[in-house]
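TA notes. Do not distribute before section.
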Amino acid sequence: MRFTKMHGLGNDFIVIEAMEKEYFPTPNDARRLCNRRTGIGADGLLLALPSQKADLRMRLLNSDGSTAEMCGNGIRCFAKFAYERGMVRSNPIKIETPAGIKLAELTIENGIVTAVRVDMGEPLFEKKDIPMKGEGICRLETIEALGRSFTFSAVNTGVPHMAVFGEVTEEEILKYGPALERHPLFPAKVNVNFINVEPDGSISVRTWERGCGRTLACGTGSCAAAVCASMAGFTGRSVKVHLALGELLIEWAENGHIYMTGPAEEIFEGNIK
């Protein structure tokens, strides 16, 4: 079985086409393939499947075998993969995900996709929609983990996210990230984004991902961080997000939708025995 290794700003994926012969990997298959010592190595496994509602259907399994409803960096990789292999020629591309149909607009130069702008839909702020225990909207509340208090907001941008404001070290992310991910306030667990607001109104984001651990970038997390920072009055509605290997532009439009623009890169191809 052929696969392609891709990444979106360091968030890496194994991408497999299963349009004609559908492939349904088990959680153990995902863990085996994503293992960085004994497998191919990746944050997740992406499958390109046929859809009756859109041009294509995207399925994502995290490196721990769990299923993710949506992935911002993954969908940019998915769109580039599908277009450059001739699976679809429309632009924008309609992609079915468990979080709904997403529209991916491609920037193409000499047949190569150099950037992807994705309509990520509207963020969900009600605690019941995140899901999070309690009622109303979570904006600049306090949460405690391992004896330390954090100021955070929460939102669902396809998957549940926590936006934590304030300075933390890399060691503290590795310490507190797992505890916050599994905090009892979040029955389905939560992605944890640590945010620094920069003097120019941009933000720097480091993420502990649900089901993956520490990753170099998170697209839905960047959207969540930008929206939460804007709601708190720290930034405007168009936010440049600094990540370890580059930047994303996140626009929270007046129609309520979030638009994410950024790159996707192919690394190599191979065969799975």
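Switch to the second chain here.
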Amino acid sequence: MLKTEMRNENSMHIDKMDTLSMVKLINEENKKSVNAVDEALPAIAAVCDAAAASLEKGGRIFYVGAGTSGRIGVMDAAECPPTFGAEKDRVIGIIAGGAKCMTMAAEAEEDNAEAGREDIARYGLNEKDIVIGISASGGADYVVGALLYANSVGACSVSISSNSDTPIEHAAKLHIVVDTGAEVITGSTRMKSGTAQKLVLNMISTAAMVKTGKVYENLMINLRPGNRKLKLRMIGIVSEITGCDAENSEKLLDANGWNIRKAVEEEIKKWSSV
């Protein structure tokens, strides 16, 4: 039996617990997700390097999943353009069943391997790309189909699962197994497994962007001015790097199309001419 389908002895009587005891238990179980990720760090680092290599070659990062796994992939991909200034087509999330399944469960979609192949093929996948298949159980046919197609065109294929020796692991070249164990609610992998998946994808996308020059020190130098909060953050970043006050930092940004790199470079040129 898959570990994610086993009953959790610690939560056998959760239906009799008071609310505080219940949330304490859930929180203690969530901590195990972090510990499980810690055990998988060498494998995660290898995937981070592979993802960065794909971006450096002009390739793309694809996340493919069904249900919760697919939603987490789409969410991480969607955050890359505003956070790192990445082009919208460099990190792509694909969920079984399409966009409607971001807000509506359609469990049967994960059983369609051909749909996984077809959905990834539409992007003109090639050997520069990396396809990261995500499935808590490790058995989603949709993900297997996408990974096998990735292999067929020479792309790098990766599996992320909470179980070992699974179909998606066998279909991929690189493997991340995050052993989160039995869920608080038996089989509800949106809980510990989903938490672990988000932690892993945070690492992959962040490390890939850092390694490809999207970050200076720990600052978002490719940040885009999508709203007032982000504009204030950009002003703070320019101030931090150049030592200018907020007013002059805003002027620098305004004069350079709200591009942090250009604003900083203009200020540095002033220093060199003095």
